[in-house]
């Protein structure tokens, strides 16, 4: 049968990335407490396409993932191997993969000890360039509580607080636990988020936030300070967004730093 994708193209326009998006696939992720945990990822896979090629073979992306069906663990060696194999089977100069997945951590309420799972949105991004250099980025989105220092200072009673999100992406020299990045972010918030809170716990988190007010500026600066002191982190990008309880807009702060420069 004729292979249309292998036919020449005469428009003389290369394509930076071509491939598949939003493929759902079961994966295993390294878990600091339990060894590994199973989750379901949404996977994007791309390669470059030279100007003279009409198309890429989309089915080969899925076939490659399926070859890992019994052992698709999201470790650094596995991601590097997948990136190299993508280039080999598709005859490409560069490859790129994005793997997004929910990661679950069992958390214990601060006073009652009640247990529940909190989910965190995570993403791994990997690229292999034309020189076979591998670039890997780990990203987490962490829900937090923040309490406004200004509101606390000027009010006779209470202060407004809100739920927020911190997005943290890092490059690193060696393996970095997802839990370590989550704990770093939560430690910079007014208070962390729990899935189960009894009355004694609600009292604790309310008072904890009140005693620890933070602007979004404080949150990103505190996280950046810790990252700058971590020799394992070579680059980071982080943002904090508070979904304001007294405004119809969010408060936002962003920092990026290339520590290798």
Major sheet attributes: 9 strands, antiparallel
- Whole-number count of domains: 1
State the fourth-level CATH superfamily: Urate Oxidase
The ordered string of helix (H) and strand (E) elements is: EEHHEEEHEHEHHEE
Termini Cα gap: 52 Å
- CATH class membership: Alpha Beta
Unreliable stretches: none
What's the mean pLDDT score? 94
Shape, principal axes of CA atoms: elongated
Estimated structural class: alpha+beta
Strand content: 35-45%
By CATH, the topology is Urate Oxidase
- Helicity range: 25-40%
Number of helices: 6
Q: What is the tally of beta strands?
A: 9
| Cα-based radius of gyration, to the nearest Å | 22 Å
- Please identify the oligomeric state: single chain
Please give the CATH architecture.
Answer: Roll
Layout of helices and strands, plus pairs?
Layout lengths: L14 E17 L3 E15 L8 H9 L9 H15 L4 E14 L6 E14 L5 E14 L1 H6 L6 E12 L5 H11 L2 E2 L6 H13 L4 H13 L4 E11 L6 E9 L3
Antiparallel strand pairs: 1-2, 2-3, 3-4, 4-5, 5-6, 5-7, 6-8, 8-9
Helix pairs in contact: 1-2
Please explain how this structure is put together.
It contains six helices and nine strands. With 261 residues, the chain is α+β, with helices and mostly antiparallel strands. The protein has a single domain, classed as Urate Oxidase. Strands 1, 2, 3, 4, 5, 6, 7, 8 and 9 form a nine-stranded antiparallel β-sheet that branches. A hairpin with a 6-residue loop joins strand 8 and strand 9 (250-258). The protein is elongated and about 75 Å long. The termini are far apart. The relative contact order is 0.12. The model has no long low-confidence stretch (mean pLDDT 94).
């Amino acid at each position: 049968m004729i292979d249309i994708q292998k036919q020449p193209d005469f428009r003389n326009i290369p394509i930076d990335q071509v491939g598949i998006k939003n493929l759902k696939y079961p994966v295993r992720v390294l878990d600091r407490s339990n060894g590994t945990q199973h989750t379901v990822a949404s996977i994007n896979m791309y390669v470059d396409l030279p100007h003279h090629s009409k198309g890429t073979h989309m089915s080969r992306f899925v076939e490659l993932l399926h070859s890992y069906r019994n052992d698709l663990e999201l470790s650094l060696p596995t991601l590097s191997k997948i990136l190299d194999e993508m280039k080999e089977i598709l005859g490409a100069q560069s490859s790129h993969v994005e793997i997004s997945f929910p990661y679950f951590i069992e958390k214990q309420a601060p006073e009652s000890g009640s247990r529940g799972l909190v989910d965190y949105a995570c993403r791994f991004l990997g690229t292999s360039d034309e020189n076979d250099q591998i670039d890997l980025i780990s990203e987490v989105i962490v829900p937090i509580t923040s309490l406004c220092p200004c509101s606390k200072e000027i009010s006779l009673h209470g202060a407004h607080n809100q739920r927020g999100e911190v997005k943290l992406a890092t490059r690193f020299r060696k393996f970095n636990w997802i839990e370590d990045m989550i704990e770093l972010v939560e430690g910079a918030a007014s208070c962390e988020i729990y899935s189960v809170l009894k009355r004694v716990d609600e009292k604790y988190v309310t008072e904890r936030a009140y005693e620890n007010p933070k602007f979004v500026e404080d949150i990103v600066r505190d996280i950046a300070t810790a990252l700058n002191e971590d020799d394992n982190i070579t680059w980071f990008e982080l943002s904090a967004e508070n979904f304001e309880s007294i405004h119809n807009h969010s408060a936002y702060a962003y920092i990026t730093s290339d520590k290798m420069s």
